[in-house]
Amino acid sequence: MASVDSSGSSVSGRLRSGDLLHAGLAVALLLGVWSVGGLEVSTGKVSTIEAMNGSTVLLPCTYSSCIGIKNLYFNWHYNDNGTMLKLCEAVIHTEGVEPKVHVYHERVDFVGSSKTNNISILLWNITFEDEGQYICFARNPKEKNRNHSATFTLLVVDQMKEIDNTLTTIIVSVVGGVIGLVIFVMVIKALVVHFLLKDDEKNKECLVSSSGNDNTENGLSGAKADNKGTPKA
């Protein structure tokens, strides 16, 4: 009996360990899918921009989720030396439904659309005090309240920096000169070939005419000889 109990317990232990292994693999797979297709927000490839004092700036932000959204919450904050100032917030109840955005800054306008997963804002008439970091945040309850954020940095300047195009101008000039030289050489070559062909045609015509004259003269001289050699009756 003891041997049977020990073998039965060992078999049940192996079964439990196998079940735990399968459960662990399933959880890992689910976590992997959730992390790959989870909510993400992005401010684009360029996360820093320079803008002139007094201009209007677009602060871009988009969101994406492979499994979709439901009651997606988003907001924008400005990092004022460590103090987070809320600029706007809203909830997108479902895909394609435009949100009712609450704006807390007099120079901020929401210009995004849920149809394009866009939650960008405009900042009007910027000043030097507006320089700093702007954080776009989103949270998706459909993904167990998974959240993500992205930072966009604004630099305010008096005037835009002039781009030195000297190197570009030199490169364009050199390339243009080389192309012009190639075209000039090809034109000269075509003219030379054209004149050479004309000279060849003239030489051929001269040879043909001279050979014809020689044959005519030979015929005339032969006829005169025949006339001289014929005896009189």
3D architecture notes:
This protein has 233 residues and is of the alpha+beta class. The protein has a domain of 118 residues: Sandwich (Immunoglobulin-like). About 5% of the residues have low confidence. It is elongated. 42% of the residues lie in helices and 27% in strands. The N and C termini lie far apart (164 Å). The chain has 2 helices and 11 strands, in the order H-E-E-E-E-E-E-E-E-E-E-E-H. It has a 6-stranded mixed β-sheet with strand order 2-11-10-5-6-7, with no helix packed on it.
Strand content: 25-35%
Q: What would the average pLDDT be, to the nearest integer?
A: 79
Helix and strand element order: HEEEEEEEEEEEH
Helix count from the secondary structure assignment:
2
Percent of residues in helices: 40-55%
Strand order of the largest sheet: 2-11-10-5-6-7
Distance between the termini: 164 Å
Q: What structural category arises from helix and sheet content?
A: alpha+beta
Task: List segments where confidence is low: pLDDT < 50 over at least 5 consecutive residues.
Answer: 25-35
Largest sheet: 6 strands, mixed
Name the CATH superfamily assignment of the domain at 40-157.
Immunoglobulins
Radius of gyration: 45 Å
Name of the CATH first level of the domain at 40-157: Mainly Beta
From the coordinates shown, what is the CATH architecture of the domain at 40-157?
Sandwich
**3D shape:** elongated
* Count of distinct strands: 11
CATH topology category name of the domain at 40-157: Immunoglobulin-like
GO molecular function: sodium channel regulator activity; transmembrane transporter binding
Region (Disordered): 207-233
GO biological process, one term: regulation of ventricular cardiac muscle cell membrane repolarization
Protein name: Sodium voltage-gated channel beta subunit 4
